[in-house]
Design a protein that fits this description.
- This protein is an alpha/beta fold.
- It has 3 domains: 11-74, Winged helix-like DNA-binding domain superfamily/Winged helix DNA-binding domain (Arc Repressor Mutant, subunit A, Orthogonal Bundle), CATH 1.10.10; 113-180 and 203-364, Type I PLP-dependent aspartate aminotransferase-like (Major domain) (Aspartate Aminotransferase, domain 2); 366-467, Aspartate Aminotransferase, domain 1, CATH 3.90.1150.
- Helix content is 39%, strand content 14%.
- The chain has helices at residues 11-24, 37-44, 48-61, 109-122, 137-151, 165-180, 214-222, 263-276, 330-344, 349-360, 363-389, 414-423, 453-467, and strands spanning 64-67, 71-74, 160-163, 204-210, 225-233, 236-237, 246-249, 279-283, 307-312, 324-327, 394-396, 403-407, 429-430, 443-447.
- Strands 3-10-9-8-7-4-5-6 form an 8-stranded mixed sheet, sandwiched between helices. Strands 11-12-14-13 form a 4-stranded antiparallel sheet, with helices on one face.
- Helix 7 links the parallel strand 4 (204-210) and strand 5.
- The chain is globular.
- It starts with 10 loop residues before the first helix and ends with a helix.
- Residues 77-83, 86-91 and 184-201 have low confidence and may be disordered.
- Residues 9-77 form the HTH gntR-type domain.
C-alpha cells in the first residue's frame, strides 16, 4: 500500500522510521492522506495498535496531522531538515558533532504524553499540595527499582532525592559537604578584623578527572569548590591524594576518554575514601548506552557508605525534561535534604509522576532499546568515516556513550582545528581543552548521537579538509 515491508522485532520502530524518512525525502508529500490504521495494519500484517502508536508518535513530532473527517495526512509544514553545515551559523550553537547531546527527535513524545495523562488522571488531591522536597515517593520508588536492576545500585528510596538534573545534584552536594566540614555551625578561622556575619565556610578541594568535563569544573568553581586534577590513564582515575573533601568520577564511561575504571582502581578508590573520610561522587551520565560490552555496575553498589550516585534523564530522554536523581550515603541524607528544601522546596510533581509512569510501564526501557540501536548505527558510521578520511587518527571510547575521542598526530593544533570547524557549522570539542595538568596527544571529542550517518560522514570529510 505504501511500499513498506517490516521484518523481525521492533516493527513499530521500523514503521515510525520508514514513515518519517518518506516524509523527509518527499516520497510522502505534504497533504498526502495516509491509509487508515486498520487498512495499513492489514497490509503490513501487524496489529492495528502498532500502527495507531506509530501515527500518534509522528503526529506528536509534527510529521503527520490528524484531521477530523479527513483521516491522517502528512503535515503541510513538516519539520525541515536543515542545510548541512552552513558557513555562518548563528546562535543557537551548531549541533553537528557536538558531544553530550542525544537525538532530540527520538524523544518519546507519544509515550511521554500517555504517561503524563495517566499521571494526571490518577494523581491524588493531596499530591497536588506542596511536594516533598526530596521528590515524589512514587518516582523515588520507581527509580530505586530501576537503578538496582540496571545499574546494580543499592538504592534505598529514603536516601534518594529527585533533582533538577545533575547541576542541582552537584550544588546540593557542595552545600552538604561545606556544612559537614563546619561542625555545629562553628566559625572557621577568619582574617583579623573580619566583619563577616554568620559561619564562614571552609575552603573545600575536590578531585576531578584529568582530562575531564570543563563544564563540570566550572560548575564546581561556581559552588565554591576548588577542582584538583587527578590523572586518568588506561585503567581510569588514579588514586587521589589526601586532603580532598571529595572526588568526582565517571567510572562506567570516563569523560572524555571512555575508559572503564578497572576493578583494582575501584577497590583502591573506595579504600582511599574510607581511609580519608572523603566522598566519591559518581556521575553516571551516559552509562545506559553501551554497545560492545556487558553492563558495568556502579561504584555505589559496592560502597554505598562513601559514594553519592548522580544521574539524570538528560542523555536518555532530553535535557529539557530537567529531572535527575541523587543517591547519597545515609550520613549525608539529612544535610542534602536541608539543602534541597532551601533550594526549591520541591520540584514539579506532575512531571515526576509522568517519569514514574514511564519507568513502571516499560516505556523508558523501550525508548532506551530504540535509542541504542540508532546510536550504534551512527557510532559505526563515525568509525567508517574516520577510517576513510582521517586514516592517521585513532578512535577511542566507542564501546558506550554518545561520543568518541579521535586522537590526532602530534603537531596538530586541535583548538585551531575546532575553531575552523565552528566557522563551518561543526562543533567538536578540542581534547586539549579538557586537560588541566595532564599531557597527551591532540584530538577531537565528537558527538555522534544527534547527527545522521550521512551528516557524520560529511562532517568528518570536512574536518579532514580543514586539517590540510
Amino acid at each position: 500500500m505504501l511500499g513498506l515491508s517490516l521484518t523481525g522485532p521492533a516493527r513499530g520502530d521500523q514503521l515510525v522510521d520508514a514513515l518519517r524518512a518518506a516524509v523527509r525525502d518527499g516520497t510522502l508529500a505534504p497533504g498526502t492522506r495516509l491509509p487508515s490504521t486498520r487498512d495499513l495494519a492489514a497490509d503490513l500484517r501487524v496489529s492495528r495498535g502498532l500502527v495507531v502508536t506509530a501515527y500518534e508518535q509522528l503526529t506528536a513530532e509534527g510529521w503527520l496531522s490528524a484531521r477530523r473527517g479527513a483521516g491522517t495526512v502528512v503535515a503541510l509544514a513538516p519539520t525541515p531538515t536543515p542545510a548541512p553545515f552552513p558557513v555562518h551559523h548563528e546562535p543557537p550553537l551548531p549541533v553537528p558533532l557536538r558531544p553530550g547531546v542525544p537525538d532530540l527527535a527520538l524523544f518519546p513524545r507519544a509515550g511521554w504524553r500517555r504517561a503524563y495523562e495517566r499521571a494526571l488522571a490518577t494523581v491524588a488531591d493531596r499530591d497536588l499540595d506542596y511536594p516533598d522536597p526530596a521528590g515524589s515517593p512514587r518516582l523515588r520508588a520507581a527509580l530505586a527499582e530501576h537503578l538496582g536492576r540496571v545499574r546494580a545500585a543499592r538504592a534505598d528510596p529514603a536516601h534518594l532525592l529527585i533533582t533538577t538534573a545533575t547541576a542541582q545534584a552537584l550544588t546540593l552536594l557542595a552545600t552538604a559537604l561545606a556544612e559537614a566540614s563546619v561542625p555545629n555551625g562553628s566559625r572557621v578561622a577568619e582574617p583579623a578584623g573580619s566583619a563577616v556575619a554568620g559561619p564562614v565556610l571552609p575552603h573545600l578541594r575536590i578531585g576531578v578527572e584529568d582530562p575531564g568535563s570543563a563544564g563540570i569544573r566550572e560548575h564546581l568553581l561556581a559552588n565554591g569548590l576548588e577542582p584538583v586534577p587527578i590523572p586518568v590513564d588506561c585503567s581510569g582515575i588514579t588514586v587521589p591524594p589526601a586532603g580532598l573533601a571529595a572526588v568526582l568520577v565517571t567510572p562506567a564511561h570516563q569523560y572524555p576518554t571512555g575508559v572503564v575504571l578497572s576493578p583494582a582502581r575501584r577497590a583502591a578508590l573506595v579504600a582511599w575514601a574510607r581511609d580519608t573520610g572523603a566522598l566519591i561522587i559518581e556521575d553516571d551520565y551516559d552509562a545506559e548506552f553501551r554497545y560492545d560490552r556487558d553492563p558495568v555496575g556502579c561504584v555505589q553498589g559496592v560502597a554505598p557508605d562513601v559514594t553519592a550516585l548522580v544521574g539524570s534523564v538528560s542523555k536518555a530522554l532530553a535535557p529539557a525534561v530537567r529531572l535527575g536523581w541523587l543517591l547519597v550515603p545515609p550520613a549525608l541524607c539529612a544535610a542534602v535534604t536541608r539543602a534541597k528544601t532551601a533550594a526549591d522546596r520541591g520540584g514539579p510533581t506532575l512531571e515526576q509522576l509522568a517519569l514514574a509512569e514511564l519507568l513502571t510501564g516499560g516505556g523508558y526501557d523501550r525508548h532506551l532499546r530504540r535509542a541504542r540501536r540508532a546510536y550504534r548505527t551512527r557510532r559505526d558510521a563515525l568509525l567508517a568515516a574516520v577510517t576513510r578520511h582521517l586514516p592517521d587518527a585513532q578512535v577511542e571510547g566507542i564501546a558506550a556513550g554518545l561520543h568518541a575521542v579521535v586522537t590526532l598526530p602530534e603537531g596538530v593544533d586541535d583548538v585551531a582545528l575546532c575553531a575552523r570547524a565552528v566557522e563551518h557549522g561543526l562543533a567538536p570539542t578540542p581534547l586539549s581543552s579538557l586537560r588541566l595538568a595532564a599531557a597527551g596527544p591532540p584530538g577531537l571529542v565528537i558527538g555522534y548521537a544527534a547527527t545522521s550517518p550521512a551528516e557524520l560522514t560529511a562532517g568528518i570529510r570536512l574536518l579532514a579538509s580543514l586539517r590540510e
